[in-house]
């Protein structure tokens, strides 16, 4: 296969006795990559090597099994075009599917089998993710592998979930957190960064001085690669200045661990922040702050595209939800205001003083 220039950085050819092998080398980690350039086995080994992991063994999956289908998907251009964070999530979810049902032929799976897999997950969201991934794999097989059979996941029952998703912080909860974690604390810096920039936890874990210029903070969202360019509001600027005094020489990251000046993984940052929430006796997580920031903008009358720019979204689909909620509240207020114009008292005589006086004069 012809190599695409720059497609797989850190890989070079290594010729041994006239045969070409692929050598991966990055940050002191070295390994050989199996298979032809760009094929599924090669891609799987390359992605493992990026995380300093050993190359996976050669595939032993029987053609037609769910394990085989998953390997075909992981080696496809569709998977390769996903963001790095999305790749990690999907791979983790598909590894679970492969462990649970990888030995079965996917063409023989029925609705009841998909629903049985769903019951193995705790919580409706995780169960629905199983349904979603199974449907995605069947669609992939149909479009790319010539599969002509049905998609059993399409007809599996979807479990009811909380329509609002993550808890959205309210203003009282934000104030309670800020009261508990005073000026100059890392917890206060994190909440103000999240609230004023709309960053997800993976973006918060890597944001630093390199993203700040001329009173603005610009970054590219890890999940979608959409760029955001936002002003640094005064309350956030104060905390950044306070944090600067405690940073070590050459430190770039805004948020580092307590014991050493290195960053968090997105998961560990989320766990650390949940502990700070417990200390302040507030429910919620980092993602709820992102929703709170969008709610603030909507309540202030921001347009859908203004909110989408804050969220670093490609479209206004999600932003429209926040605008709709804010408009509904404003319309309710204006509607009730009309009812109070020219209001005619209809209270009982015991409560309506004017009615009582009129009766006395008759």
TrEMBL record:
Keyword DNA-binding: yes
Superkingdom of the source species: Bacteria
Gene Ontology molecular function: any one: DNA binding
InterPro entries per the UniProt record, alphabetical: DNA_brk_join_enz (IPR011010), Integrase-like_cat_sf (IPR013762), Integrase_catalytic (IPR002104), Tyrosine_recombinase_XerCD (IPR050090)
Domain Tyr recombinase: residue ranges: 164-336
Alphabetized UniProt keyword annotations: DNA integration, DNA recombination, DNA-binding
GO-annotated biological processes: DNA integration; DNA recombination
Family: Belongs to the 'phage' integrase family.
Protein name stated in the entry: Phage integrase family protein
The species this protein was found in: Cereibacter sphaeroides (strain ATCC 17025 / ATH 2.4.3)
UniProt lineage: Bacteria, Pseudomonadati, Pseudomonadota, Alphaproteobacteria, Rhodobacterales
């Amino acid at each position: 296969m012809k190599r695409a220039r720059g497609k797989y950085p850190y890989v070079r050819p290594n010729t041994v006795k006239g045969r070409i092998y692929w050598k991966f080398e990055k940050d002191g980690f070295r390994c050989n990559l199996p298979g032809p350039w760009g094929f599924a086995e090669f891609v799987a080994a390359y992605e493992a090597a990026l995380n300093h992991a050993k190359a996976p063994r050669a595939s032993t999956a029987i053609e037609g099994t769910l394990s085989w289908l998953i390997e075909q998907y992981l080696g496809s251009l569709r998977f390769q075009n996903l963001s790095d964070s999305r790749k990690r999530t999907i791979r983790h979810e598909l590894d679970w599917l492969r462990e649970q049902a990888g030995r079965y032929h996917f063409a023989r799976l029925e609705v009841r089998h998909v629903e049985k897999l769903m019951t193995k997950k705790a919580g409706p969201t995780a169960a629905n993710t199983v349904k979603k991934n199974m449907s995605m794999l069947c669609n992939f097989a149909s479009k790319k592998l010539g599969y002509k059979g049905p998609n059993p996941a399409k007809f599996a029952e979807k479990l009811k979930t909380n329509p609002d998703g993550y808890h959205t912080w309210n203003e009282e909860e934000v104030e309670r957190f800020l009261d508990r974690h005073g000026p100059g604390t890392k917890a206060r810096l994190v909440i103000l960064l999240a609230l004023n920039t709309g960053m997800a936890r993976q973006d918060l874990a890597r944001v630093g001085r390199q993203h700040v210029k001329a009173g603005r903070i610009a970054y590219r969202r890890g999940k979608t690669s959409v760029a955001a360019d936002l002003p640094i509001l005064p309350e956030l600027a104060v905390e950044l200045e306070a944090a600067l005094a405690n940073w070590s020489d050459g430190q770039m990251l805004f948020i580092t661990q307590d014991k050493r000046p290195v960053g968090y993984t997105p998961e560990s940052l989320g766990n650390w922040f949940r502990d700070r929430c417990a200390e302040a006796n507030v429910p919620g997580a980092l993602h709820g702050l992102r929703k709170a920031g969008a709610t603030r903008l909507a309540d202030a009358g921001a347009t859908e595209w203004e909110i989408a720019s804050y969220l670093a979204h490609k479209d206004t689909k999600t932003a429209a939800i926040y605008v709709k909620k804010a408009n509904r509240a404003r319309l309710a207020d204006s509607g009730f205001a009309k009812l109070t114009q020219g209001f005619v008292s209809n209270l009982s005589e015991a409560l309506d003083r004017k009615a009582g006086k009129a009766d006395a004069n008759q």
